[in-house]
Amino acid sequence: MKKETVWFEVEENESIAACIERMEQQGFRIAGRKEEPIFAEVDGQPIPVKQLIMLKGIKEENI
């Protein structure tokens, strides 16, 4: 059995629950989550502007 892994980005105006539903519609189940801050430079200083949330999806395929 082969496992396919894909990272799904939670879109700008999308809830985490909506992203999970989108994953499930494509046949994936959630297997992980990671977040990373996005910064912009203002007056020479890094300022956090948003949080990027990625959900790891796994699809099992019979081979």
From TrEMBL:
InterPro entries, alphabetized: NETI
Source organism, top-level taxon: Bacteria
Pfam families xrefs: NETI
Protein name per UniProt: NETI motif-containing protein
Taxonomic lineage from the root: Bacteria, Bacillati, Bacillota, Bacilli, Bacillales
